[in-house]
Specification:
Layout lengths: L8 H22 L6 H24 L1 H26 L8 H20 L8
Helix pairs in contact: 1-2, 2-3, 3-4
Amino acid sequence: METQLEINRPFAGLGGLFGAAGIAAYAAAAHSANGHMATIAPILFIHAPAFLVLSPLAKLSRAAHSGGLILVLGLLFFIGDLVSRDFAGDRLFAFAAPLGGTLLILGWLVVAATAFRILDYRK
């Protein structure tokens, strides 16, 4: 009997994209002493496997799915603000990085609550 693992394909795809972007940011950081790439790279690279793990978990729990979506928003705001500062010379918008960081913390707390069944509910 063959068991097939159901995954959230967008989360799996984001895991791959975050991993690739993390490696690209590490490469950019190696060629420039200035800018935020040395900060961006590990953040992206840490979240890449997290999204690979979230891809099946998000199929089991709406809370895990919600936590993943919150993490995506947090990464977009936080990383987006740092990239905008490097390439456009200005912030993405006022308080984008702190908002992104706050969303990242919230997203991880939601994922953690899923593990402790605080927010565990089936789809």
